[in-house]
Amino acid sequence: MNEHDPQAYLERIANALERMVPKQLADVDLTGADAFVWHSDPEALETILEVNRIDLELLCGIQSQTDILYANTKRFAEDLPANNALLWGARGTGKSSLIKAIHGNINEKHGYNLALVEIHREDIHSLPRLLSILKNLKRRCILFCDDLSFEAEDTSFKSLKAVLEGGIEGRPKNIIFYATSNRRHLMPREMIENERSSAIHTAEAVEEKVSLSDRFGLWLGFHPLNQETYFEIVEAYANNFGLDFDKEMIRAESLEWSMTRGSRSGRVAWQFIQDLAGRLGKKAG
Which H/E stretch holds residue 254? Predict the structure, then answer.
């Protein structure tokens, strides 16, 4: 190629610019499955054929939270008014499990056609783009973000805040947003306290940081389990998977298991059952 040829030079520039332009997402089809995961780079909706979830009946100790979120989700499926929901609280207490279980149960028991679309925390900056794709589809979608939180230098929470309620378009009618977090206000406590102590206009600075959680119409708190509820969860799992056990034995072993991990939670109970089932040569899950 003659580098002095203007036409060839312009073609090289055009090809370089074309490579720099982000690839457009192909036509989205949400008919092939009930669950999807959004990836922002490159943009793609990955189909999930088998969701990792627990039956709703096995989620013990959170009946009040279950009833509220189930009713909210069912109203959304019926095209009635429903709220975005923030499930916050102690780790391992069933927050994300509840969202996935309710989605599966409502579709199966009531014949609805809800899609579950998960967006990872690190892709939150691309949420407006995802909404622009999903809002043009006929299917109703539960948009789900697990372990959502923001740090001091993170400004992507402003995009999320606008998308939830504050944007000019508002939330698309076929989308509801459910998030889980260990933090009630999605920000570390020291970050909020630092804003309070150092800002010129204290109330305004703190309001900016905590107002994100206010965009969720439902706040559902999940708290550490007491010992009896922990035992109830362990025994429910054991019965469900057909594990033969002595009640006193399984309580003693599961209690020791929880003590080695420093907490009692549904997650710890599940891990104990996996260990027990393995020792008994049984399948669990």
Answer: helix 247-261
pLDDT band at 25 (very low <50, low <70, confident <90, very high): low
Its pTM surpasses 0.70: yes
Torsion angle (degrees, nearest 10) of CA 157, 162, 165, 171: -110
Measured distance CA(122)–CA(124) in Å, rounded: 6
Residue 92 three-state SS: coil
Sign of CA pseudo-dihedral 248, 253, 256, 257: negative
pLDDT digits (tens, 9 = 90+) for 103-157: 999 999 999 999 999 999 889 889 888 998 998 888 999 999 998 877 766 666 6
Q: Which tens digits make up the pLDDT trace of 60-71?
A: 889 999 999 999
CATH 3.40.50.300 fits 35-222, yes or no: yes
Q: How far apart are CA 272 and CA 258, in angstroms?
A: 8
Q: Using CA atoms, how far apart are residues 98 and 178, in angstroms rounded to an integer?
A: 11
Domain boundaries, the chain: 35-222, 227-280
